[in-house]
Each structure stands twice: as C-alpha cells, then as structure tokens.
Amino acid sequence: MGNLIILGSQWGDEGKGKIVDLFSDRFDIVARYQGGHNAGHTVFIGEKKFVLKLIPSGILRPGKKAVIGNGLVIDPAALLSEIETLESVGVQVAGNLAISNRAHVLFPAHRMLEKMSEGRPGRVSLGTTSRGIGPCYEDKIARRGIRVADLLDTDFFRAQYDSVMEEKIAIAKTFDIFQEMDFHRIRDEYEAFAERIRPMVCDTAWLLNQAIRAGKTVLFEGAQGTMLDVDHGTYPFVTSSSASAGGACTGTGVPPTRIDGVVGVSKAYVTRVGAGPFPTEALDGAGELIRKRGNEFGAVTGRPRRCGWFDVPLLRYTAAINGFESIVVTKLDVLDEFDRIPVCVGYRHDKQDLAEMPPTVRAIEKVDPVYECLPGWNQSTFGVSSYAELPAKAKDYLAFLEDRTGVEIGCISTGPERNQTILKPGSRLERLIA
Ligand code: IMP
User: Fold this and answer.
1) What are the C-alpha distances in Å from 31 to residues 13, 57, 69, 252?
2) What is the pLDDT of residues 394-420, one digit of tens each?
3) Is-contact 415 383, C-beta < 8 A?
4) How many CB atoms lie within 10 A of CB 142?
5) Among this protein's residues, is 104 annotated catalytic?
6) Active-site residue 13, yes or no?
7) Nearest CA to ligand 1 atom 2
8) How far is it, in rounded angstroms, from Cα 386 to Cα 384?
9) pTM score, whole prediction
10) What are the strands, taking DSSP E only, across 57-119?
11) What is the pLDDT of residue 12?
12) What angle, rounded to 10 degrees, do the helices at 154-174 and 183-197 form?
C-alpha cells in the first residue's frame, strides 16, 4: 500500500467525507490540498454527525495525523471554531493537526470583495458559497496574499495587513460594494488567532516528505470535485483551486513520484450546487425525488442541490484528467424507488457525437445528452454491506456504468454509516488500500 489521492469526480458533494473517513484507518496521515471552508464533508459516526470544512476527516481517527496543506486558504475564525467543536465532543486535535506555514489566510475583506463577482449588475453570478474563497485565491495568484507564516510574523503582518486592506478598501469604494468594518479590530483578532494556531503550524511539505521517507502512508483528500477545478471544470462556474488530482502535488509539496494511486468518488447520479451547466439535470419530478431521498441540500450553505442522472461522458472525462484506477459509487440506495433509471451515455450536438468535453459553458449548454434507460430494482439497498446481497438489477446498473465508463467500481456506499459500504472483493481498490 502507498499514498493515495481520493477526490470527487463530479461537481462536489459526492460523499468523499465518508469514504476518506472509512479508508483513513489504513493510512498514517490524511492531507487536504486545496479549497477552504467552502467544502463541507459530512461524516456520521454512530449518532454523531460531523461537518468538517477545513480539517481533514482523518482527525476523527485517534492517533492519525491530519494535515492542512499549502494549497488551502484558511479563515482562522472558521478553523478555530471547527477545532473547538471537535474538542468539545472529545476529538483530540492538538498534536494531531498540522497546518502549513505556506497556506494563505482569508480575511473578512475577501467576503466583501466577493460581491464584485456575485452581486454587481452586468456580472453573471456564479452562485459561490460567499466565503471569500475566490478573492483570497486572487490575492495568492496576484502575489499580494498573506500566508500563515506572515500572520505569525507579528511586525511584518501589521504592516502587510494595513497595506493590503488599504487596497481592498479603495477597490470596494470604487465599485460601490464597501461595507463598514473595523479593520483594526480585525487585525488584533487575527493576531490573537495567530497565537492560538502557532503550535500547529509547520512546514507540512517537509513533514509529509519525511513521513513518506520513513515508510508512512498518506491519504490525500480532495475537496469540491473535478468539474469545479479552476482549469478542468466548467469554467467560470468553478471554484478557484485545483480540485483535480494534480492539485494534490502542488497543494502539499509531495512530488508526483510519491503518489501510488488515484481513486474517484461519484454518486450513483449527479448533483450540482450553484449556477453553471449541468447536461443531465432532471428538472422534473424525478430530480425532486432524488433531492428528497438523497437529502440533497448543501452541507455548508443549506442550498438545495440540483439533481440529475449519471453522466458517462463526464465520468470518462474526469477519469482521464485524474487517472482514476477505481471509483467509489455512493448513495446507490437513493435510486431504490425508480422504475426506470436513465443514464447519459453520450453527448451530441448538431447530430454529431461529441468525443470530447466541450471547453465552454456555451457549448456544454447546447449539448444533447443521449440516454439509455435501465430497469430499476424497486427494492431497498439501504445499508447493504455485501455485494452478493445487492438486487440483480442494481448489480446490472453498476456493471453498465463500469462497462461504459471503462473504470472499475471498487466500492459502493449504501448509507451514511461506516458499515453501510461494500468493498468489492478482488478489486483494484481493495489492493490499493490493503
Ligand atoms: P466558491 O468555492 O465559494 O468560490 O464557489 C464556486 C462554486 O463552487 C459554486 O458553484 C459553489 O456552489 C461550488 N462549491 C464550492 N465548494 C463546494 C463544495 O464543497 N461542494 C459543492 N459545491 C461547491
């Protein structure tokens, strides 16, 4: 067994939190590599529900290390509140969580500036999580961001903060989105946050590479999903980070030569939150039934998720971008009540079959999905934990997806609990995590 990347193959919310939590006991370290508190990983352990936003779900396993890599943007208030919640239910965070000194720091002014893209007349709203994620990454790429190491360097931080905020105030006033806030009080608060996180901050690239050299194993946990990746997703309806497998290397400082496998997570259908193209969206009662049965509401914002049918061309695309060796199919039980289950097997435009994923939103919106309908199994699969016990038609559905996507389905999730999972015996995935 080696170092494995697990990430979403659709538009996020595929159920990665549960799968990472499930597999994490087989690894020494779980590392996040991108995003911020826009992510929401829901994990159920017994009666307890945890929504993790910044901290990798490996933290829930006693003795495992959790790493927040350099590729993330961190709102310290959100991070500290998450730490407090975990500690209040007895999860040991101190000593088990390492925060990169190169990750970027998110400030309230980033949320104010998000109104530039989301609220102004003439701009197409992306339907972001309004957490300030995009503006924080803008600062990073523009080389004026404040990193965790800068936050801990008090004198430097004071001067840098004042100069960066002066710019933000000027921009906000120019574009009429200025929102009164006490910038000096915020600076003091951030100085206090710095002291609280200081013991957890280190060079996590060095930590991870040393650990790997010493024979320890790392599970890299993606946030959002490949179709929200800033390069490979449905741009501009994407998040601002590299959610695909390549991001695991840049976002942690672990080289590609140390990655031993990549696994995708996909729902048995598709969902999307926020605006943007979605070729297989079911705008009828079927979409509504999926939303109801799957409780498809955002973990962070509570927004209803848009729901639709499994999309083979999309999975083939994300499998190619990430090099999936196996996929985990989640929420199979949500489809239990459908008599017929459409699966999109191809994209057409102007009577032509499309071999590639169209690069623009305009082109994706014009796509005609080609469907094949499979018979439903009309029987409960909720909680089934052995492949043999799945209804024959559910097995046929999975075999069809495997055949059309060309990617093995190594694991199936049939409910939110750890034990409501089927790891397919003899699968490549079983070997990757053995
Ligand atoms: P942002 O990441 O807040 O900038 O939002 C950009 C897009 O990514 C929006 O469509 C969000 O709904 C979506 N998004 C961000 N994080 C998640 C997530 O964890 N799950 C699903 N969608 C997300």
Assistant:
1) 18, 9, 7, 8
2) 999 999 999 999 999 999 999 999 999
3) yes
4) 8
5) no
6) yes
7) 239
8) 6
9) 0.96
10) 65-68, 73-74, 97-100, 104-105
11) 94
12) 140
